[in-house]
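Protocol step 4 of 5: obtain the predicted structure for the target chain.
Materials: sequence only (see below). No template structures provided, no constraints applied. The aim of this step is simply to have a reference model before the mutagenesis design in step 5. Sequence pasted as it appears in the construct record:
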Amino acid sequence: MVEIKRCLDTYALVEIANGNPAFVSYLNKEFVITDLTLAEFYAVLLREYNEKTADYWHKKLEHYSVTADKTVLIEAIKFRYEHRKSKISLFDAVGYIFSLRNGYIFVTGDKEFEDFKNVEFKKK
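Step 4 output (C-alpha cells):
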C-alpha cells in the first residue's frame, strides 16, 4: 500500500519544533514542505527563539523543501482572493494549492482549512 505524501504547513512545523507528539510523528512519514513555508518557518523561529534555532531547523528540513512553480503561486493568489474573508496567508495558500496539484494531503491546524478537501486538520 502506497502512503500518500503530506505537505506540512508552518503550523505543523512549529508544533514539531515544540515537540508536540501529535505532530512529531510526521517526521516518520513521507512529507514535503514548500520553499515558502520553510522560509516562513525560519522567520517564526528567528522571531520566537534565535538564529541558531532557526538555522538548526532549516538544515534539518531543507532536504524536504520543494519549489512551487509560478502557476501554483498565481493559483494560490486567486485562491486567497476567493477566500479573503477567512484571512488565509499567502504561505498557507501556496502550500494548499501545491498539495492539491500534486495529490498530497495538506497538514495544518489553522482553523481556516478545517473544512477544505485534501486537508488533514490537527489541533495542538
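Step 4 remarks: The chain is about 50% helix and 15% strand. The CA atoms of residues 22 and 124 lie 8 Å apart.
Proceed to step 5.
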